[in-house]
Specification:
heterodimer, A: about 110 residues, mainly beta, three-stranded antiparallel beta sheet, about 0% helix, about 45% strand, B: about 120 residues, seven-stranded mixed beta sheet, globular
């Protein structure tokens, strides 16, 4: 089955840039979506279709997808960005939706 | 306002059954795919099942195929998940989520842009 691998954690100082990777075999051939989940809350879609921002998501959030790695970039990190982040794709081989392992972003 | 409201969770014994519901409002129900995603305590997101806007196409995770059935009722704007032969490992917070695409061209590659707050299922004796 298709596997998406994310780093367990990323730490970043306020005002700096956080980059969260999502590794998968030939992931560039798939549409990647990213979700933010804060403690006790439902996930929120922050990037869809690799690099598009849904309405209401700050421009500080951006995405890219190339080769075997997709990346969520959070610029000018704020304390409120502290959360778990998950990537997600549809695997047409297995007809399964696949979530990444999740990355905890800590703002120092 | 687009809203999803789950219900039906609870405590059930291993081998038991439960039916979850998700009441939808604020969007064209029949044109968007819907999914169930669960999250075990302290764990990550796990996809469970997805159904197309028409209801004609369904997909299941291997861990639930043959035990769970997803369905939708357009007359009630409600999504369902019938769960049978429940196991301890099915214990989780179950979310319903709306597909962000209103066209068949992007299904099932669409994202979930709206999520409910979830309903808790506990399988224990």
């Amino acid at each position: 089955s298709y596997v998406l691998t994310q780093p367990t954690s990323v730490s970043v100082a306020p005002g700096k840039t956080a980059r969260i990777t999502c590794g998968g075999n030939n992931i560039e051939s798939k549409s990647v979506h990213w979700y933010q989940q804060k403690p006790g809350q439902a996930p929120v879609l922050v990037i869809h279709y690799d690099s598009d921002r849904p309405s209401g998501i700050p421009e500080r959030f951006s995405g890219s997808n190339s080769g075997n790695t997709a990346t969520l970039t959070i610029s000018r990190v704020e304390a409120g960005d502290e959360a778990d982040y998950y990537c997600q794709v549809w695997d047409s081989t297995s007809d399964h939706r696949v979530f990444g392992t999740g990355t905890k972003v800590t703002v120092l | 306002e687009v809203q999803l409201l789950e219900s039906g969770g609870g405590l059930v014994q291993p081998g038991g059954s439960l039916r979850l519901s998700c009441a939808a409002s604020g969007f064209s129900f029949s044109t968007h795919a819907l999914s169930w995603v669960r999250q075990a305590p302290g764990k990550g997101l796990e996809w469970v099942s997805t159904i197309s806007g028409s209801g004609r196409t369904t997909y299941y995770a291997d861990s639930v195929r043959g035990r769970f059935t997803i369905s939708r009722d357009g007359s009630k704007n409600t999504l369902y998940l019938q769960m049978k032969s429940l196991r301890a490992e099915d214990t989780a917070l179950y979310y319903c989520a709306k597909g962000d695409c209103d066209s068949t061209t992007c299904f099932p590659n669409d994202a979930s842009d709206i999520w409910g707050q979830g309903t808790v299922v506990t399988v224990s004796s």
